[in-house]
């Protein structure tokens, strides 16, 4: 397991979106272990309240639960206003909420696709803007955007999802340079296939090859937090995933698509 990050966010407030499951659970535990106070934001209040109670007991940190549908239009502004009313200043933003849809675009109800785009792109961008603006004014802050290994190529059966993550990667790398002079670090984490329940939520079966490539969520989350603390622009979790991303520089895009189709669909 990768070495976990050192304690440089202690006593600050971190907002974790998508905090009720998947990588959000490990982000929360990693930061709470470093004495970071947390705001947990997702739809499922009951699971977040249980997580909050566990973190308070284990680490003695303050934890605020915000039950909110982040895919709803205006959710980012609503969340920001709620935290402003509580006088909670966010020093670390982990834009983790998001999901994928497996299957042909034309066979997927367009409402589901646009809901995914709203969450993966629009809400993420709004949260980054709203909290990033405050950080820039204070000349201090850290933002982690969670993209995907799929951000590096087009992926049949995940066409719209991969496109949303390509947006997140491009946005994050650009903002890393834009906000650096304002004292704000922006880092983009690109996980490969991770044991988070992503496939079940996306409506996909896990192929034998994907099972071989699957990482546990803890080292993925730890690599993202560590890269954020080190001020990196981007990190790909796992050696095999780093090699896969690098190989894209050497292969035709048609070959990339064919390879990903075999990996994803068998």
From TrEMBL:
The entry's keywords: Oxidoreductase
N-terminal signal peptide: none
In its UniProt record, a GO molecular function of this protein is: oxidoreductase activity
At the top level of its lineage, which domain of life is listed? Bacteria
Identify one Pfam family in the record.
adh_short
Similarity section: Belongs to the short-chain dehydrogenases/reductases (SDR) family.
Q: What is this protein called?
A: Oxidoreductase
């Amino acid at each position: 397991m990768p070495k976990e990050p050192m304690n440089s966010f202690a006593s600050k407030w971190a907002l974790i979106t998508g905090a009720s499951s998947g990588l959000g659970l490990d982000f929360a535990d990693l930061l709470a272990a470093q004495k970071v106070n947390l705001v947990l934001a997702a739809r499922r209040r009951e699971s977040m309240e249980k997580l909050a109670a566990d973190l308070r007991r284990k680490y003695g940190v303050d934890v605020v639960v915000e039950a909110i549908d982040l895919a709803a239009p205006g959710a980012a502004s609503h969340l920001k206003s709620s935290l402003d009313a509580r006088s909670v200043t966010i020093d670390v933003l982990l834009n983790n909420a998001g999901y994928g849809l497996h299957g042909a675009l034309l066979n997927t109800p367009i409402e589901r696709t646009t809901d995914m785009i709203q969450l993966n792109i629009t809400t993420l961008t709004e949260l980054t803007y709203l909290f990033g603006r405050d950080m820039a004014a204070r000349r201090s802050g850290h933002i982690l955007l969670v993209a995907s290994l799929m951000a590096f190529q087009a992926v049949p059966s995940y066409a719209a999802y991969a496109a949303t993550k390509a947006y997140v990667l491009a946005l994050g790398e650009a903002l890393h340079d834009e906000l650096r002079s304002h004292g704000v670090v922006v880092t983009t984490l690109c996980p490969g296939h991770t044991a988070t329940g992503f496939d079940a939520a996306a409506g996909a079966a896990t192929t034998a090859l994907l099972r071989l490539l699957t990482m546990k969520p803890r080292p993925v989350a730890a690599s993202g937090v560590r890269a954020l603390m080190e001020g990196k622009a981007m990190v790909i979790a796992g050696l095999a995933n780093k090699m896969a991303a690098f190989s894209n520089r050497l292969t035709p895009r048609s070959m990339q698509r064919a390879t990903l189709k075999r990996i994803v669909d068998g």
